[in-house]
Specification:
This protein is of the alpha/beta class. 28% of the residues lie in helices and 25% in strands. It has two domains: 192 residues, Medium-chain alcohol dehydrogenases, catalytic domain (Quinone Oxidoreductase, Chain A, domain 1, Alpha-Beta Complex), CATH 3.90.180.10; 130 residues, NAD(P)-binding Rossmann-like Domain (Rossmann fold), CATH 3.40.50.720. It contains twelve helices and 19 strands. The strands form four sheets. The chain has a six-stranded mixed sheet with strand order 2-1-5-9-8-3, with no helix packed on it. The protein has a six-stranded parallel sheet with strand order 14-13-12-15-16-17, sandwiched between helices. Strands 10-4-6-7-11 form a five-stranded antiparallel sheet. It starts with a strand and ends with a strand. Bound molecules: zinc ion (2 copies).
Length: 359
């Protein structure tokens, strides 16, 4: 099968033939019909210590083509979304319902610490192992994952929309609904109008926010935010003067944006950081202010969303027109064009061009 291999950190993807093992016990094989290039994939190409060679990609959807021994949660022909935070179902976070924090998931931090992957990669070239990025490797025509790393989705959801439900949608919408716990009537700002930030804007609208302020340096991104429900927009400079907000969601996650968000929320307000900063970045918070202003500062990993529990909720909101995900998709492209798609998205010329390894 064909897949986009990154041979060395920071080098362009090579779309080439890659061997893939058949699914073992408890595993499934999925033909990838759509996958998005998420900002995290691009971070992994350079700055998170991702071992190479690797097939990246974690925001994907497709059809189950083969099931391993003992799998009964999905069947041949099911449409599925890939889950890059597969829950083991047995650890303490899984048992309390926070399965996106599963203690048995291997992360890029584990890779940096030299820990082995949770299972051998099914991918290889000329007999040499190729890493499976974020345990999903969706920049490929086919992937093999544990059965708990897929969740069934209704057949009427188009594959590009289903793919985005694998990362940008739960991360962004979840940051608003679950992590920030926006209440009806809240004044909310979202910093950064990439795919996650725009999904946070939609989540804030769904939560009943009174004002939804979309903050981004790019006029095109601000216009798109207004199209999907933001009540107003601001540049970074304009946002710097804002005070008294109930909630700020930071979809950038770098120290300057976290500090700006912290200043902009009222006493008792909430800052939720859903953007991924670099592992070496530190945010300074005034200790007295932290006590006195009684503000809440929360992270938001995968939007606090349990895919196995919450995907039907997201699909329901999409079907009712309240999550206009199609508005965030610029178009589709064959897997061979992955480097062009990366360039366009990094330059801000496109928000999401969804790749279609199996059109
Ligand atoms: Zn992602
Ligand atoms: Zn677990």
């Amino acid at each position: 099968m064909r897949a986009a291999v990154m041979w060395k950190p920071g080098t362009p993807f090579d779309v080439q033939d890659v061997d893939i093992a058949a699914p073992g016990p408890g595993q499934v094989s999925v033909a990838i019909h759509a996958c998005g290039v998420c900002a995290s994939d691009l971070s992994l190409t350079t700055s998170f210590g991702q071992p190479t060679p690797v097939v990246l990609g974690h925001e994907g959807a497709g059809i189950v083509t083969e099931i391993g021994e003992g799998v009964d949660s999905v069947a041949f022909g099911d449409h599925v979304v890939l889950v890059w935070v597969p829950p083991c179902g047995r650890c303490a976070p899984c048992r309390r319902g926070d399965d996106y924090l599963c203690a048995n998931r291997r992360s890029s931090a584990d890779a940096r610490a030299g820990k082995a992957a949770a299972r051998p990669s099914p991918l290889s070239v000329d007999g040499n192992a190729v890493h499976q990025g974020m345990a999903t490797s969706t920049f490929a025509e086919q992937t093999v994952v544990p059965a708990n790393a897929v969740v069934r989705i209704d057949d009427d959801v188009p594959f590009p929309v289903a793919a985005m439900m694998g990362c940008a949608v739960p991360t962004g919408v979840g940051s608003a609904l679950r992590s920030a716990r926006i209440a009806p009537g809240d004044d909310v700002a979202v910093i950064g109008c990439g795919a996650v930030g725009l999904n946070a804007v939609m989540g804030a609208v769904v939560a009943g926010a009174a004002r939804v302020i979309a903050v981004d340096p790019m006029p095109g991104r601000r216009a798109l935010a207004e199209k999907i429900g933001a009540t107003e927009t601001a540049s970074a400079e304009e946002f710097g003067d804002m005070r008294g907000l109930d909630v700020v969601i930071d979809a950038v996650g770098h120290p300057p944006t976290v500090s700006a968000a912290w200043k902009a929320v009222r006493r008792g307000g909430t800052v939720t950081v859903v953007g991924a900063g670099r592992p070496d970045q530190v945010v300074e918070i005034n200790a007295y202010e932290l006590f006195h202003d009684d503000k809440r500062l929360t992270g938001s990993f995968h939007g606090g969303i349990s895919m196995h529990r919450d995907l039907p909720v997201l699909v329901g909101l999409w079907r009712s027109g309240r999550l206009p995900i199609e508005a965030l998709i610029d178009g589709t492209a064959e897997l061979d064009r992955i480097n062009d798609v990366v360039t366009a998205q990094q330059a801000g010329a496109a928000l999401r061009v969804v790749l279609t390894p199996r059109p």
